[in-house]
From TrEMBL:
InterPro entries: Amidohydro-rel (IPR006680), Galactose-bd-like_sf (IPR008979), Metal-dep_hydrolase_composite (IPR011059), Metal_Hydrolase (IPR032466), Metallo-dep_Hydrolase (IPR051781), NADH-UbQ_OxRdtase-assoc_prot30 (IPR013857). The keyword Cell inner membrane does not apply. This is CIA30 family protein. PANTHER family: ALPHA-D-RIBOSE 1-METHYLPHOSPHONATE 5-TRIPHOSPHATE DIPHOSPHATASE (PTHR43135). Keywords: Signal.
Length: 605
């Protein structure tokens, strides 16, 4: 929901991920198991799977001679889980590890969408979840979606809506994603107006396609539904909302026949709430490596603001009472979320918001399959895809049981090898001898001048840093000279220009042996430096492996040199053992900036 800066540069890069070809799926009999069929539960059933499909959801015959028998006693068999809101651009295998066999993608690169779609059509994506994608979203020039480092077409007015929608369908979009987003905090977007949104929705419907709308406040939620949206891709955060407003929105959604994807996982990230239930669960954490855990640990909100979750909880409860279909979606790909794993947190969040465990399971199986017209999936019924998840215990009583996965099947083929490979990878990473922190230079200084050029005692070194890689137009000039106190004095002349939601320009130090590779700087506790400048406030930024947006701490500049000391602890969520970048940046306010930094040191106190 909220834009990312660093890792979003990969969003539409057409990442190549070698998928495991779907092996010929034989016959499997899951015997004497509790079955949640996508709608309701049945005790002591046996489910027969043959050649990638469910042959019998209540098998009572003799055990087939060629069948592999799986004991279901004390366990529950679920349809493969469906995450109804993701952004698919990395970790393509990870959803299957956590039993998510289908993802509904709300915006990714066209190359990624087409690659996955082709492999699905050819039956060659056994090692990945199926993905049904909107491809390129529909947004205004300068609107939400344009801040990512990929050029996308934008829509000027409703008169061009049909041609725009037709172009997305030609690219392979399964449905149409529309953006009504005015911005948040100090960051503002241009948004499609109501007339244009309605024109896009009508254009999608003319071609038999669903139109789902991204909103971020009550006013736009109502406007999207009134325009005929088939669903809302999000709810929204707000500390105050009346019960009357929540009930009125639910009544409108019900009257319009719309569905809603609350996406608590990303809303909690915005609220600064970490998914401790995942991070502290060995069965989940044991399947996530450092980078993957890092994404969960570093949400958008630097400090907890649980009060702003009052609105989505109230609206979700009202939607449930009104009978509006609720779908489980995480917005995975954003800070504070992780593919596959976050859906289990989302289920718990839905229960916390008032759904029963059964209703939450419906929201992650049959409901999204029906809402997004995904065909024969999301249920355990004869002829349906044999995408299945076997868990210990009874998630209809304890929704947390969905995390106790015994086995996952995709098209009738077990993914145990994939899960075990991931478990082994994480175990090896955890068991490896802890890396020794990088030895700090005797004087701690990381800003050096060597042969007249800016240098460093370790790492990849210093680089100009601007928003250009993300489609911005800011510029910067760096000039390094010898500093009186030793090392280098770096003069930074930055021109921060509009054109990106978070414009910046400055200098970045990368401590890893490769750009954006993490380095263990845990021997340092404080970053010290001297600064002078034109009086404009600037930012010290820091990021670590797995982070989707760096943390920033502002500091002042003035005409006279002064020393600044900022502790690592000020950068909430940054892992000091895996620091990827330290930056000195001007922005986000547009303008010309000039400041100098010198004697940049990593200090142990």
């Amino acid at each position: 929901m909220k834009p990312t800066i660093l890792t979003s540069l990969l969003l539409a890069a057409g990442l190549a991920c070698a998928s495991t070809s779907t092996a010929f799926a034989g016959t499997t009999l899951v015997r004497d198991v509790r079955v949640f069929d996508g709608r309701s539960a049945h005790e002591h059933r046996s489910v027969l799977v043959r050649d990638g499909a469910i042959a019998d959801a209540d098998y009572r015959g003799k055990v087939p001679a060629d069948a592999r028998i799986v004991d279901g006693k004390g366990r529950t068999l679920l349809p493969g889980l469906i995450d109804a809101h993701v952004h698919t651009w990395q970790h393509f295998e990870l959803p299957l590890v956590f039993g998510v066999t289908t993802q509904v993608d709300m915006f990714t690169g066209v190359e990624v969408m087409q690659r996955i779609k082709k492999q699905m059509n050819e039956g060659r994506n056994g090692g990945e979840a199926d993905v049904f994608s909107a491809g390129t979203l529909v947004t205004a020039p300068g609107g939400h979606g344009t801040e990512y480092p990929v050029k996308i077409p934008t829509l000027e007015n409703g008169g061009d809506a049909q041609a725009f929608v037709d172009a997305r369908i030609a690219e392979g979009s399964h449905f149409i994603k529309v953006v009504m987003e005015d911005g948040f905090g100090d960051h503002h977007f241009k948004s499609l107006d109501r007339a244009t949104v309605k024109a896009v929705i009508d254009a999608a419907h003319k071609r038999g396609k669903l139109a789902v709308v991204h909103i971020s406040n009550l006013e736009n939620a109502r406007a999207a539904l009134e325009a005929g949206a088939d669903g809302l891709a999000h709810l929204f955060v707000a500390a105050q909302m009346s019960q009357e407003e929540a009930d009125s929105l639910a009544k409108l959604a019900q009257a319009k026949g719309a569905f809603v994807v609350p996406t608590f996982s990303v809303l909690e990230s915005i609220a600064g709430i970490k998914p401790r239930d995942l991070l502290d669960d060995p069965q989940v954490a044991g399947l996530l490596d450092r980078e993957e855990r890092g994404a969960l640990q570093t949400g958008y909100g630097p400090t907890p603001r649980p009060g702003i979750l009052a609105a989505p909880k109230m609206v979700t409860s009202a939607l449930r009472r009104a009978g509006v279909p609720l779908l489980a979606g995480t917005d995975a790909g954003n800070a504070g979320t992780q593919y596959g794993a976050s859906l289990h947190h989302e289920l718990a969040a839905l229960v916390d918001a008032g759904l029963t465990p059964r209703e939450a399971l419906v929201a992650a199986t049959s409901a999204p399959a029906k809402a997004f017209r995904l065909g024969q999936r999301g249920q355990i019924a004869k002829g349906y895809k044999a995408d299945l998840v076997l868990v210990e215990g009874n998630p209809l009583q304890d929704i947390g049981a969905t995390r106790r996965i015994v086995e996952v099947w995709k098209d009738g083929e077990s993914t145990t090898a994939l899960r075990e490979a991931q478990r082994k990878h994480v175990a090896q990473e955890n068991a490896a001898k802890a890396t020794q922190p990088l030895a700090l230079p005797a004087n701690g200084r990381i800003s050096l001048l060597k042969e007249g050029k800016l240098a460093s005692p370790f790492g990849t070194g210093w680089f100009p840093s601007t928003d250009k890689f993300a489609g911005g137009v800011s510029t910067v000039n760096l000039d390094a000279q010898a500093a009186r106190e030793g090392g280098a004095r770096i003069a930074i002349e930055a021109q921060v220009k509009p054109g990106f939601a978070y414009p910046w320009a400055g200098a970045a130090f990368m401590p890893g042996t490769q750009p954006m590779l993490g380095a263990d700087l845990s021997a340092a506790k404080v970053l010290r430096f001297r600064v002078r400048g034109d009086g404009h406030p600037v930012m010290l930024t820091m990021a670590s492996s797995g982070m989707t947006i760096p943390r920033s701490v502002p500091f002042e500049t003035g005409a006279e040199w002064k020393e600044v000391a900022i502790p690592f602890s000020a950068f909430a969520g940054v892992d000091p053992t895996a620091v990827t970048m330290i930056g000195f940046n001007a922005g986000p306010q547009p303008g010309d900036y000039r400041f100098e930094i010198a004697d940049v040191r990593l200090a142990d106190r």
